[in-house]
Amino acid sequence: MPNTTTATSHDEPLILPMCAVFRRFLKDQGLKFTPERARILDSVLSKPGVFEADALLDEMRRDSRRVSRATIYRTLKHLMEAKIITEVLIDSKQSHYQLSIGREPKGYLVCMETHKIIEVDVPELDAIRERVCRQHGFEPASHRFVIYGVSQDASENSEGTD
Amino acid sequence: MPNTTTATSHDEPLILPMCAVFRRFLKDQGLKFTPERARILDSVLSKPGVFEADALLDEMRRDSRRVSRATIYRTLKHLMEAKIITEVLIDSKQSHYQLSIGREPKGYLVCMETHKIIEVDVPELDAIRERVCRQHGFEPASHRFVIYGVSQDASENSEGTD
DNA sequence: CTTGCTGCAAAAGTTTTGCACACGT
DNA sequence: ACGTGTGCAAAACTTTTGCAGCAAG
Lengths: 162, 162
Hints:
The structure is a homodimer. The first copy, chain A, has six helices and six strands; from the N terminus they run H-H-E-H-H-E-E-E-E-H-E-H.
């Protein structure tokens, strides 16, 4: 069973500060730092790439870190407000999220066969984004470039299919 | 009531052939060309930009072109198979579609305030896509570049908000 | 006529919400 | 102690599906 993500290595030291960032955010909003929120943040920080709410719940339950589905969704919203994670649009049926440690995610390469998602760095996009926004009088906020294709592994493993 | 799309002008003459394309596709698949399918294709062809299944249904009902929601979804699927429309991922909660008359849609500029979607042409993307796919051993199929931002109109109309 | 199509309503899948109780601050 | 948070289950919302009658080829 192949895993669903690849990518960009995150250094461990970032994990501790992130917790502080979240606590700070919560305090500023008059919200509380609960064990559930701590556990969710923890699980989110352990994700190297793109993840779904449901997968997070499963994983947490497997590790007997008890949380309800409702709390996952509620907390993911706070984490987005706190700019700790970003929503990534890859599938119109389900929300995908990703850590946004300082930098915004840029590009994705999605295999249409295996559904594997590879993050790719495409430096040109920033300049393109600026240009397009200027042309249309927009104030840019973020962007996303997704390439759909078929990976070599997938096309090898299903030669005569379809 | 601002409209939701802008863009690329479609010439009328394309509308007739599209119907033939769809009939051909249906016949090839042993499927039938029904009045409902004709009406849906018709409504789809009248869309200048991105649209949602539900909006299509509403519009059709307003014009008393009776169709059921189920038939809309079933037909949109066929239209995608026939390569007449393409799914566009812009919102993780709802599917968005767009006519794909020969050419693939390339870029979108989405206003986070008004939710207006502007299609933009970004010629560089093809080359970038090729390069990224080559680097990762992928066979490219399609791509999408979405820029999120705030349009001038929106930022003018809500100066002191938030 | 045969086979696929439509509409309805119910089902399915993801996300949200109301409520009663529990817990950070 | 107060005001949020949590879990549960039900609600919402989009999309899919089963079924009985209907229509295209």
